[in-house]
Write a structure and sequence with these properties.
By secondary structure, the protein is mostly helical. The chain folds into two domains: 92 residues, no CATH class; 61 residues, no CATH class. It is built from eight helices and no strands. The chain is globular. Bound molecules: zinc ion. This is Fatty acid desaturase 1. It holds the Pfam family FA_desaturase. GO terms for molecular function: oxidoreductase activity, acting on paired donors, with oxidation of a pair of donors resulting in the reduction of molecular oxygen to two molecules of water.
Length: 163
Amino acid sequence: MGLMKANHVFFLLYLLHILLLDVAAWLTLLVFGTSFMPFLLCAVLLSAVQAQAGWLQHDFGHLSVFSTSTWNHLLHHFVIGHLKGAPASWWNHMHFQHHAKPNCFRKDPDINMHPFFFALGKILSVELGKQKKKYMPYNHQHKYFFLSECPHPTQGDSLERGC
Ligand SMILES: [Zn+2]
């Protein structure tokens, strides 16, 4: 069905709209100065740039846009390195761990940044797995994720034990 074939025009336009928003933010300050309203508009534009660049670098980082990894790596370095100011190697190191153990404390670095902010739901699936309550296989969790309901663990109790 061609679902895994990336549309290069889409990604080109995606990158161009990010660059246009970046230029618009810079021009806002250049033309209107640095008073409060231009500053606020610039902040909104740059926030949109950072959010959009975050998703775009994710696709390049997963090597899912071009058929060769070289072009994916080049664009990944440009988007995360030049537009977001972070090293691609750092993102790869963190993101491989995230996809190996998604939402797993002490294994997923995205959750370690702030477990209560990034974790969805009342309790993480790994906590249920350790307690052997409501056990369901991980390889089918995309079919039953909405069923998971149980009491929230207390701070310093089960959350501190890790996976
Ligand atoms: Zn990913």
